[in-house]
Amino acid sequence: MAVSLAFSQCGSLRERCEIGSVRLIHGEADYDEGAVVPVCDWRPLNTREAQRLQAEPGIPDGALIELVRQPLPDTQVEAAPDLHAVAAGLYPFADRWPADFLGCVTNPGDAPTTTEDPATGRRLGLHVDNWDRLPYGRRHEGRRRLCLNLGPGVRYFLLGDREIEEIYRLVHPDPEHHYPHTDDVRRYVARGRPLQCLRIRLEPGDCYLAPTELLPHDGSTLDGEQPSTAAFWLGRWPAGAGSTEP
User: Fold this and answer.
1) 9, 67 in Cβ contact below 8 A?
2) Hey, which of 18, 121, 134, 150 would disulfide with 42, CB 3.0 to 4.6 Å?
C-alpha cells in the first residue's frame, strides 16, 4: 500500500507538497543516533510523482491522508491562559465523530523536525506511532491522527514515501513475529534502500488526517520565522470527513 493523498486535482497537490531526500544522523547531540531526517533539498513534485501519490478509489479510510480547514479564533491561540482547553475546543468534527484529544505542543520557528523522545529530549526524525500497537499486516486498521496548526507560524507535515509494512518486510526475514517500529525505518535507510520525504505545507487553521502508525512521519517549522502550536487527536474518520483542499 503506497502513500495515498486525497487531492482532487494534480495541480493542487503540487502547489502544497514538495519532495526531497533523507539522511542518517551520526553524532548530532540533538538527535537519536541513526535517526532519519530530511536533507532539506526540497523541490516541487513533478506531474508523474503527484499522480503516483494521489489516492485511488477503494483505499481504506485508515490509510488515507486528507487535508481539512478549521477556522481559528481572531485572537492568538497560543497566548490563551489555558492553551490545552482552547485547543481541545477547536476539534473540527465535534458534532459528528468522537476522537481522543492528545494535547498540543509549541515548536519554535525554523526547526527541521519537531518530535522529541520525552525520555531523552532528543529528536526522533522520521518515525512511526504505536498508539494502537497493531502487528504487521494490520497497520492500516489503526486510528488516524488529526493535527491542527494553531499558528501563528507555518508548519509542515513530513512523511516518507514508503509505508512501514513495505519497509518492515525488507529488514525482517520473519515479519509476522515482530511489531513494526521506528528502528525498522532506520535499518532500511542504513541498508541503502530508497526513501524520499514529502513535505506538505500547513498554514494556521490547516489540519491533516493521516495514518501515522502506517507512514514514517514528523513535523517541521523549517524556514518559518514564527513558532507553531499544533493540537492532536486520534480517531476513526470516514474518507471525505472534511474538505480535502483547504
Assistant:
1) no
2) 18
